[in-house]
Each structure stands twice: as C-alpha cells, then as structure tokens.
Amino acid sequence: MKNNSLTRKQSPKRQKVFKGSGISMSTAIGKAHVINSGLGQVPKYHVSDTDVPNELKRFRNAVAKAQKQLARLKAKTSSLTDTTAEELELLLDAHAAMLVSTRMLLGIEKNIAKLNLNAEAALEIVVEEIARGFEKVKDAYLAARVQDIKDVGSRILRQLMKTPYQVYSKIPKGSIIVAQELSPADTALMDPASIAGLITEQGGSDGHTAIMARSLNIPAVLGVTKILSKISDGDTIIVDGDNGRVIVSPDHDTLEEFKRKIEARRRLNRQLTRLRSLPAITQDGVLVGMQANIELARDVEEAIHAGAEGIGLLRTEFMFLNRSSAPTEEDQYQTLKTIVTEMSGRPVTIRTFDLSTDNLPQSKNIRTNKSSNPLLGLRAVRLSLRQQRLFEIQLSAILRASIHGETRILLPMVSSIHQVREVKKILRRVHSRLQKQDKISTDKVPPLGAMIEVPGAALIADSIIQEVDFLAIGTNDLTMYTLAIDREDEQVSHLFNPLHPAVLQLIQITLQAAHRSKKPVSICGEIAGDPRFAPLLIGLGVRELSMTSQNLPRVKQRIRALKTGPATRRAMAILDQTDEDQVQRLLDDFNDGI
Ligand code: PEP
Ligand code: MG
Predict the structure, then answer these.
(1) What is the pLDDT of residues 38-96, one digit of tens each?
(2) How far is the CA of 579 from the centre of ligand 1 (A)?
(3) Is residue 471 classed as helix, strand or coil in its secondary structure?
(4) Rounded to an integer, what distance in angstroms lies between the CA atom of residue 243 and that of residue 551?
(5) pTM, two decimal places
(6) Average pLDDT over residues 287-305
(7) What are the angstrom distances between the C-alpha of 478 and each of 168, 322, 484, 487, 493?
(8) Range ranked top by mean pLDDT from 130-134, 172-176, 312-316
(9) Which atom number of ligand 1 is nearest to the Cα of residue 315?
(10) Is 524 noted as a catalytic residue in this protein?
C-alpha cells in the first residue's frame, strides 16, 4: 500500500504535445510561467514595504485618468441621438460612480498595502472576487452588472499598463512565458537573459510579436490554441520552434533529446560566428549585401556582432510603444543618433513609423478614431500624411541624426505615387526649416525609399521607383495583403505562404522594375532571414537582404555554398508554377541537393 501511494505521488505527469506556429531555429527548455489574462496580460509581482506608497500613488493616478476618460466620453455623447445618448450617459455615470470610494477601489488599495501586491494584480483579484459574488445572484439585471465591474477594471488596468513596468524582470530566470496573447510592446520589454521562451494562444509566426521574439533571440511558438488551460505554473516545457510544437512535461528520453539538440545548436552557432567577417559571396563570385533588421538601439550591438554591413530596416514604431505619449523630437534624435553613430559609417535605413490607429499613442494633439480594421486603415505612411505634425517631428529627428553617418529614409506601406510625392514635399520643407534654424548645414537629403508591401504598389513598381532612390520589398505584408491573410491571426496562419505563386510574381515584378531603373532593391521580410529561401531569392536576382541579426550567419553560409547559375534556373522553374506545394517541392529538392 505504502509503496503504491509513493509511486502515485512520484509518478510524473504524462507528456503532452501541442501544435502552433514556431519561430524556426529556436528551441528552449524551461519552467512555465503562466500569465493569466482575464483582463489582458496582467503582471504580478510583489512590491516592497517602502514601495507601497508609490504603488498606491500609481493606482490612484490610474483611477484619476480613468475618471477623466469617462468624463471626456460623456461629453462626446452630445453628438449622438437622444435615446442613444441617454443610454450611454446612464452607463457612463454608473461606471464613473464605481471610481469613487467603492468597495472595489478600497479592496484594491488594501491588497496593495497589506499583501504588497502590484496594482494590476491587486485589481485583478478584487474584480474576480466581485465577479464570483455576482455569479451567485439570481437577478438577471444584477448579474449583468458584473460586466460593468469588469469594464471599469479593464479601464483602470489599461491606464496602469500604459506606464512602463518591468514586469518581466520579476519572473524567475529561465521561465517560459505562457500567455493568451503578447503584444509586440510587451515582448519588447522582455530580457532575453532571463526569459527562456514564449508560448501564446494567439498570433502567428510572421506577426510583429514573433519578429520581436526573433530579434531578441527568444524561442517561441505562437498560436497554440487553448494551451492556457492545459498548463500550470512550474510545468517543464519544451519550446520546439523548428517544428511549431510545445511539449509539456516531457518524458526522460524527449528531454534528453532536446538537451542534445540545444547543445548541438550552440556549437553550430559558435562555428557560424566565424563567418562574421567573411563576405556573403556565392561560389561563382556574386556578392550579396547582408544587412540587419532592428527595432531598438539595444539591437545594434548584436547586428554588428553578427557581421551586418548596415541596418536594412529600422522599425522606428517601436520607439512609440510602451509610453503614454509620442516621443519628442529630441528623444527620437538621441536614439537615432546613437544607432547611426554606433554603426560607424555603415548605412542605416530608417523606416518612418509604421503605426496604426490601435497602437498610436493618443494625446491632446493626436486624436484618431480607431479603425475597425487597423491593417486596412490609417496605418504607416497614410497615418504620417494625416498626422503631419507627428511626421515632421520624426523627419526632423531623422535629418538631424543623418549628419552622424550614412542614413536612408524608408516609407512603409506605400500604395500610390502621390504619397511619395507628398512626403518629398514635407521632407524638403522640414529640411529647409532645419537649415534656417542652423540645426543642419548640409544641402544633402538622405536617399528616400519606398517599401513594396501592397500588391498594388508592386504592380506599379515601375512608376514608384521613378519617384524614389531605392525599394525594399516587405514580404510579410506583401504576403498578407496578396492572400488576404492577417499575419497575426493563428486561425489562418497555415495559409500564410510567401511561396504562393502570386506573391512570387509580385516580387519578380518589383525586382525587374528596380533592375530596369538600375536602382537598389532589397528584401527585408522574414523570408530574407531563412536560409532555405536564399537560393530562390538569389536566383530571382536579389543582391541585398536584410534580416534579423541572429539569422545572418546561417543565410550567409547558405549563400557561400550557392552557384547562381543553378539557383537562377531553379528560380525560373519555380516562377512557372501555379501550385504552391509544387513550388515548395522544387525549393526543397534544390536545398536537399547541396
Ligand atoms: C514586411 O512587411 O515584410 C516588413 C519587413 O515590415 P514589417 O514586418 O515591420 O511589417
Ligand atoms: Mg510591413
């Protein structure tokens, strides 16, 4: 008997495997740290006794901001029809009433002060307690009020979470974060030295969260449906990014196999860093430019370490995230100057902000209505042209930073030549203003480029290139818009395929337009960083690639093993295909033949 119960107690949990979209070439083993997301990704940590007054202050500030927000909303109701306005006013009044000395607020403050909890965690506990209490109530009207409590809770939470917090630094080292969803901004706050991996229920491997994880070198599998209910804090987890698998409570053999894999990869990475200073040159002497995609100034060091010859894509929108207002010109200038200076003469391609109405920091001067579909709404260069003050501030910062090294300006999501012409006018205006203010002395304006990531833009690449100095093909969005697949939506991520013949045709049209005009063109979507795509891209005539730094050595290794003749013949055969599976087979065969 005794033995049996001992065996039961010690018997390990059964291994379970879940599927999602993995970030390739990334594997990790760690302990699960589940982020319960009833109200979003709510951070949980303890605050010291001395920090309690500050935490209470932070909470009260958030409540005050939420009150102001409700008052503003109420003022807006005057533009609605009488009945709608009345209904809404009643609701807003009820919400506002919950924000003054209620049981909810007092309960939250008590949790902060007595349990030393951070405000977000304290709030979540109270909202859940109240909601549970309401569930028992038989009255349908009262039971429905639970939603009001949750809404008010979310409103305060949103205010709290606008303040940057170092939540992920409080998580035990080596943890694997398991969350319903992680925004790119959340991910940007993570320290790769302490977070071993990421798993989310929502999102795809080509979305911005995945891009951020890749750039931080954090192994990840995204879009693993319903995993949160199957995992507990502390479970051992393997993140198998190569195969898009999550293995929970792995058995002994699986665990050992993955430990060996991780060790072998470390060895390979060490070998690959030797390629750092060698050129990406094919067997027959064709040189390919290798640049890095970066998001933040902290990524520069890794780009240089990986042997990047420049920055092919600096996603400046990341400077606007995790803050309640847009960065000032000086903030942006300082960051850009650091990046340009640290790249010491290597070119830096600064993409103007690719923000949309759902992640643009709102303030007194910046007001946009939320788009019902931000991906098709006021995004990227469209937003810049609508919010010209914000755009001019960024252009000023870029022009000032351009004095410190070689820079280029890149416009995201161009869809018409008018947009480019309009930007050129603004750029000239900002430039001459800076000259008048003696902030810059040079007449030289950095080269201006357009991203080709909308099918319509690819089809008129011949005209767009007449207006700009270079093109950069963003295959992530190009695939998304060509195939009508949201790259962040795990439900359709299996259909997201840059090898689709339609996408390849558009890439080809763009490359030919650039070649005809003898202007540079690069590929900076995720496919540029995948060594399996290198023969196809080189075969199509691409001579400039920009990718996340960690992939640079592997892609370089693949290019150094290539001959352009066979690669071109295979690329032409691929372009003749109408079936994406056949494209994949032709590419796989070619890669297997090395
Ligand atoms: C792209 O769309 O391919 C691209 C490089 O831009 P982003 O991934 O930032 O949208
Ligand atoms: Mg894009």
Answers:
(1) 445 577 888 889 889 989 999 999 998 888 877 876 776 565 556 555 656 777 777 77
(2) 25
(3) strand
(4) 17
(5) 0.76
(6) 95
(7) 33, 27, 10, 10, 15
(8) 312-316
(9) 9
(10) yes
Please spell the DSSP secondary structure of 493-538, one letter per residue. GGG--TTSHHHHHHHHHHHHHHHHHT--EEE-SGGGG-GGGHHHHH
Bridge-based pairing state of the strands 348-351 and 407-411: parallel
**What value does the mean pLDDT take over residues 290-302?**
94
What is the average pLDDT score of the chain? 89
CB 462 within 8 A of CB 516: yes
Dist. CA 403–CA 303, nearest whole Å: 21
Specify the higher pLDDT residue, 144 or 387: 387
- State whether the beta carbon of 507 lies less than 6 angstroms from ligand 1: no
**3-state class of 363 per DSSP?**
coil
The Å distance, Cα 196 to ligand 1 centre, comes to: 25
3-class DSSP state for residue 174?
Answer: coil
Per-residue pLDDT of 362-373, as tens digits, reads 666 677 777 888
What is the layout of strands, in order, in the sheet containing 27-35?
Answer: 16-19, 245-248, 236-240, 27-35, 175-179, 195-200, 220-222, 21-22
Rg (CA), the chain: 26
Structure tokens at 49: 């006794």
Kindly provide the residue ranges of all beta strands, DSSP E only, lying in 328-376, ordered along the sequence.
Answer: 348-351
Which ligand 1 atom is at minimum distance from the Cα of 453? 2
Rounded mean pLDDT, 424-434: 98
Q: How far apart are CA 410 and CA 217, in angstroms?
A: 25
Centre of ligand 1 to C-alpha 453, Å, is 8
Q: Is 476 in the pocket of ligand 1 (CB under 6 A)?
A: yes
Distance in angstroms (rounded) separating the CA atoms of residues 355 and 374: 9
Report the distance separating Cα 204 and Cα 20, nearest Å: 8
Helix (H) and strand (E) counts for the chain? 22, 16
Distance between start and end Cα atoms, the chain: 60
Residue 76 has a pLDDT of: 60
To test the pocket of ligand 1, the residue of 316, 354, 477, 479 to mutate (highest count of ligand atoms within 8 Å of its CB) is 477
Do 350 and 407 meet the contact criterion of CB atoms below 8 Å apart? yes
Structure tokens that stand for 351 in this block: 């993409």
Half-sphere exposure of 161 (CA within 13 A, CB side): 22
Establish whether residue 453 lines the binding site of ligand 1, counting it when its CB lies within 6 angstroms of any ligand atom.
Answer: yes
Residue 443 in this model has a pLDDT that exceeds 70: yes
